[in-house]
Amino acid sequence: MKKLGLLCIAVLMLAVAGFSVLAETLVLDVPLYLQKDKRWKDCLLNPDAPGGKTIGEAGCALCVLAMSESLRTGEKVLPDQLLERIEMSGDDLHWPREYEALVRSKEGLLVRQAGPILTACLDSGRPALVCLSSDTLGTHWVLVYGYDGLNKEDPQTAHYLIRDPGTRDRVTFNMTKEWFPRIRIIRTFDVTDELRDVAEAALKQ
User: Quick check: 195 and 121 in contact, CB under 8 A?
Assistant: First the structure.
């Protein structure tokens, strides 16, 4: 009983201090496709574009979309297969009509703004396809496919799980901040009015 009393006091102290004792975990079943995979790294993104780049050089958005499509369709969709189904403009892909941008920001979102949007997507069974940016490195796409130990009242980037087509080493959102500190675009598929409302409210914070 004494130990139980001490545990209750500790939980109460954490709650008073503003910490959630109900950290949550959710993980969607999404594959990891790396741009440098030998099966497709040398495939041109657009064979009709003079001097075009390969998937290995600039295919992060394509790989992220293939990961998401594998979940959305329930079938394995590989980047080189997807390349045969979609339209390209230069080295940039035309996003399928099922995918909508919940957020577009030239300045970049703060974590407290992006957190509710990422969480809402995941809670609805959808990954978040996120475009990050850097003044020196340009843009890079990653896919947020879950969270682990997340306090939804105070979301932190360390708790969001990512699939990064550029490397196996970056597995949580906070690992991207050194290279790509800003969140520019958040997309997902089959967007609902509820998700749009969450995004609109988050951007007003």
Answer: yes
